[in-house]
Amino acid sequence: MSRPVRIALIVALGAVFIVVSLGVGRVLGARGAERVLVEQVIRDQASGNVQGIARELPNCGLGTKCHANVVKLLAKVSGPGLPLEILQITQAAGVSPGGSTGVARIAWHIGSRLPVVECLVIQKTGNVVSGFGVHLIKLSNPIAREGACPGVPNLLV
User: How confident is the model over 71-104, as pLDDT tens digits?
Assistant: First the structure.
């Protein structure tokens, strides 16, 4: 193999490596954004921030059924001023080069209260080329502490 062909091959392989690395970086960045979103939802619930939760959910403005459901949920689970501990986050949307939707299972507690376990439907939109967006679609009422999320019938709309 001649020297110019080897150099061209090395440059081409380097370019492929850079493109793949950037794609992997975007996918992992979206996974990190999902975790940040889930943690913010937990913090908003613990502090009783109705507006924070309602802002993340689609069509959940003041006066909607969704908003009323969020108010009821936070009346059960919030404890402003109590220390928050996040026990477990099972991420939802997974690692993929395109958009996906999944259910995250979260467990958290405040103060000395029993843990709250909930399910969140998370949607990842976009792709490696255009970038990703991560959105909360639904939030469940608390489920049994050992309960599983898929097919949970009590997701708030």
Answer: 999 999 998 889 999 999 887 766 677 788 888 8
Q: At 8, which CATH number?
A: 3.10.450
Q: Per the structure block, which two tokens stand in for 152?
A: 């949970």
Q: Count how many domains the chain has.
A: 1
Cα separation, 60 vs 157, in Å, equals 8
Q: Angle of helix 3-47 relative to helix 65-77, nearest 10 degrees?
A: 80
Query: With a cut of 50, which residues of the chain have pLDDT below it?
Result: 157
pTM of the model: 0.79
